Each structure stands twice: as C-alpha cells, then as structure tokens.
Amino acid sequence: MTMLVAEHVSLSKGGRAILRDVSLQAHAGEFIAVLGPNGAGKSTLLSALAGLSKPDSGKLLLDAHALNRISLDQLAPRRAYLPQNPRLEWPISVERLVALGLTPKLPAVDELPQSFAPAITRALELCDLAQLRDQPATTLSGGEFARAMLARAIVSMPQILIVDEPITGLDPRHAMECMTLLSRFAREGMLVIASLHDLTLATRHASRIIVLVDGGVVSDAHSLTEELIHKAFGVRAMATGAGDSRGFTLLSPSEK
Predict the structure, then answer these.
(1) Counting CB atoms within 10 angstroms of each CB, which of 53, 68, 108, 217 has the fewest?
(2) pTM more than 0.90
(3) Is the pLDDT of residue 256 over 90?
C-alpha cells in the first residue's frame, strides 16, 4: 500500500524558513486537503512531497524508500503533480496537452498512439472537456485551462496525485465537480493531496485536513473548527449544516 511520509522536514528559501519541522504520514485512499493562509508553505510542502523540492533537514519517504533516491523516471509513473498557475506557450490541442500526462515526449504533428485514446477520452470526459479536445489549449479560458491541466494530471491514473490549488479559477459547478472527482479517486485507492482555500469544499470532500501556519502544522485532523479557522486565518467563522452539508460562513472581525 502506498505511503508517503515526511519526518521533521524543514526547508528555507532565500534565508527565509518556509517549512518548519513538518511531519506527516499519507496513505493510499486518503484525500488530504492542505489549508493555510498565503505564505504558510502549502505549495512548498506539496512540491517537497512530489519529490521536486529538497528539504534542508528531515526525511521524505515513499514506501520506506528515501524520496530523493528515487529517480524522476521511476517516480513519474506513480506520481502526478499539478503546480499552482501552470503555463503553456505552444498552441497544441487540448487532446495533445492531456496526452503529455502519459509521456513527456510526443511527436509535434504525428497522430497520437491509438493506445492513448481510451485514457485521454476518459480524462477529457471527467474534466468536462470532450467538446474541446481539438481546440488549441492556448485559446482556452482560465477555468478551461485549469481543467485541461487537471485532465493531464489524472490521465495516467497515478497512485499519488498532488495538486496545488486545483479549483482556483473554476466556476462553482466545476469546482464542486473537481472536488467530487478527487474524493472519488481517493475512495478508489489513490492518495490525493491538494492545497485549497475553500474551507467548505475541503470540509465536505476531504477525508483529512492539514492546516499550516508559518510553515508548521497546527492541525492534522478529519475536520475544521471555528476556533482553528480563527487561529489559522485570523477571521471568525460560523459552522453551518452537518455531515455532507457542513460548511462555514466567514464573519468580518467586527461580527460576533
């Protein structure tokens, strides 16, 4: 069973401590939401867990093997990573963009291998992009492009899916569909780790919520509380609903 572990991980950039003594275990079948204010270290943590940022101290392990000793060629088939604010400079089709999730090298103009077709079609359909498969990806709206990049990340159905703010820029319908999709993948056995800013969607869909503040973990639990939201974000919140309808209404500092 897939297990990704961070043991006392610290990481600095430009003389600034970004992660401070972070420890966690993440298992197959979990959907872990990483929350925290801007600058808390969420993106850096996800990059480190994806094997793309080397910590200054501490250990990162994948199935008890040091992550930094696993080559990217070995890691790529098992782990997909979607960074925050991805970019594309070439006007390739949406279909070809998604196909890059199956291989880093594709012929510029030749037909895609027929063996790719089922996986690409499935990913496009899951991300509501089937009708846009032949459109140049550089002509997509911001939300459409975000969905195309998510389709690229999921096309290979990796064991580990790490996505940094996957619902940013999505309209409410597609944001909810994205979260439903990620939670479905976790139920099917994938390890899903996502940084998020939407507290309600995180509460309703994630099986576990990690909260970072100033580079350190202040909570690792199955839910959020009004007190934790105030501690992490400096705003007051009121819990609403229960179960799958649970959410939070944020209040201004003057409201009680």
Answers:
(1) 108
(2) yes
(3) no
